[in-house]
Write a structure and sequence with these properties.
2 domains; alpha+beta; single chain; Tumour Suppressor Smad4; six-stranded antiparallel beta sheet; 260 residues; Rossmann fold; elongated; 17 strands
Length: 260
């Protein structure tokens, strides 16, 4: 029996602080109506990639899909901006479901901090001293000592962001792997990181933490002076982004691998 697709009628618009984003929100809300995020079938985010991440974090764990349009400086996670045909574009859009990383960081005072990361969890040195880390995967030590500026675990969605800038691999969205990527590794000098199964539980121990202090950052949430950081994908949380059919996130990830 044929079941008609529900008509898309309830949109909410949210925008970054940039003037062009605020102007776009006002124009679109006037044209299409704005029912507020709690009543919306789809949230339309206007800004750049950083604002898209803010919106996704804000709607965890059960928010509606988010359709972004670029009114910022970086728009890898955003669709092109246009006021025309918005309902039709959203109706035809493809879904990308993202599972975030859950970070559990213990600091030198013994306090534990938890946060979710959609792009990556990164460990970064805080001083002129390089960081010195021990890496375990699924409770087995894989690298007894990494001397570096930092290291990160990136999701497929985040693999084209900071991870790519650190010469990490680009991962297809359905790759079911995570990227473990060093930042300016000094020793072992030739270590370039690893691809891990998405089920891997990653643990970092900070060696000489009093002398070589390290911070842990889950997207935009930072914990300073950490002693140990544990990271695992949270499959219980699925965040849905919508992309124009001809420019899906999967297509963008693929195209990025052939960019000059």
């Amino acid at each position: 029996m044929f079941t008609a697709k529900p008509m898309l009628t309830r949109l909410a618009f949210t925008a970054s602080d940039r003037p062009e984003a605020q102007e776009a929100r006002e124009a679109l809300a006037k044209r299409y109506g704005d029912v507020g995020e709690d009543a919306a079938q789809v949230i339309v985010a206007l800004g750049g990639d950083g604002f898209m991440l803010e919106c996704l974090h804000r709607r965890i764990p059960d928010g509606p899909p988010i359709y972004g349009m670029n009114r910022g400086s970086v728009g890898f996670l955003m669709n092109e901006y246009s006021e025309d045909g918005l309902l039709e574009r959203i109706d035809a859009a493809e879904q990308a479901v993202i599972h975030p990383l859950r970070m559990r960081a213990t600091d030198l005072a013994g306090e534990t901090h938890e946060a979710l990361a959609i792009n990556e969890v990164s460990l970064l040195r805080q001083t002129r001293q390089t960081a010195k880390l021990r890496i375990s995967i699924d409770h087995k030590v894989r690298l007894a000592e990494l001397v570096c500026d930092g290291v990160m675990v990136a999701t497929p969605a985040g693999s084209t962001a900071y991870n790519l800038s650190a010469y990490g691999p680009i991962i297809p969205l359905d790759g079911r792997v995570l990227a473990l990527t060093p930042i300016s590794a000094f020793r072992p000098r030739r270590w370039r990181g690893a691809l891990l199964p998405h089920t891997a539980k990653v643990a970092f121990e900070i060696l000489e933490p009093d002398k070589r202090s390290v911070s842990a950052v889950a997207d935009n949430f930072e914990v300073r002076d950490v002693l140990k950081v544990e990271i695992a994908e949270d499959r219980e949380i699925g965040l849905t982004m919508l992309f124009d059919a001809e420019r899906s996130l999967e297509e963008r990830v693929l195209a990025e691998q052939f960019a000059g």
